[in-house]
Amino acid sequence: MATHAASVQPSLSLTNPEIPNHVSHDPEKSQVEDELDYTQRGQWLRAALLGANDGLVSVASLMMGVGSVKQDIKPMLLAGFAGLVAGACSMAIGEFVSVYTQLDIERAQLKRERMSGGSSIGQDEEDKKAEQLPIPMQAAIASALAFAVGAVIPLLAAVFIHDYKVRLIVVTCVVSLALVGFGVLGAVLGNTPVVKSSVRVLFGGWVAMAITFGLTRVIGGTGLDM
């Protein structure tokens, strides 16, 4: 038995060294892939979350502003719907122009490097850079859709509530929960601190709604025919 154990032991010692080498290589590969993944997420993540947050805060603030001087539900809903359509179009056009400008700049830089001949990167690296250039239409569509998704939230929160005070409270609560949700989602997808991101988004939304509500109420209380 001792002889048999001794004969088995060397075979184990020969195979074992291969296992740690293989395992130790995988985490490094995973880490690099994760880093690249977060970088590639930046373009669409920024456009989508910015659009959703803007849609939520803009339409909610608009509805709260109208609600500060009009207790009827119809003006709030009409203002919110108009804000949804106008905001989605504005976000799409603005994002398209912005990203297209960035695309032109990056294309011009690649062309200058190619013409000068002083670039140290190879053809494969250049092709890779070209593939990673921003896509204006993709960013525009993402911003418009995300804005609409965010803007629908306060509209749905108010549409079935006819009591004025209850409507304002429900809209505020629903929007607050959505702001926290967007903050958490952005932090998770972007690999950033969850609490800090959520608090920042929530506080910004509260400030926007409070300022819009307060200023509109002041203007409405000056005797203007509204």
Automatic annotation (TrEMBL):
Pfam assignment, any one: VIT1
Homology family: Belongs to the CCC1 family.
Record field: transmembrane: 76-94, 139-161, 168-189, 201-220
GO molecular function, one term: iron ion sequestering activity
Organism this protein belongs to: Turnera subulata
Keyword Transmembrane among record annotations: yes
Region named Disordered: 1-31
Role, per record: Vacuolar Fe(2+) uptake transporter.
GO biological process, one term: intracellular manganese ion homeostasis
Protein name: Vacuolar iron transporter
Source superkingdom: Eukaryota
GO cellular component: vacuolar membrane
InterPro entries: Ccc1_fam (IPR008217)
Biased composition (Polar residues): 1-18
Predominant place of localization: membrane
This protein's record includes keyword Ribosomal protein: no
Keywords: Ion transport, Iron, Iron transport, Membrane, Transmembrane, Transmembrane helix, Transport, Vacuole
Membrane topology term: Multi-pass membrane protein
Subcellular location: Vacuole membrane
Reaction equation(s) it catalyzes: Fe(2+)(in) = Fe(2+)(out)
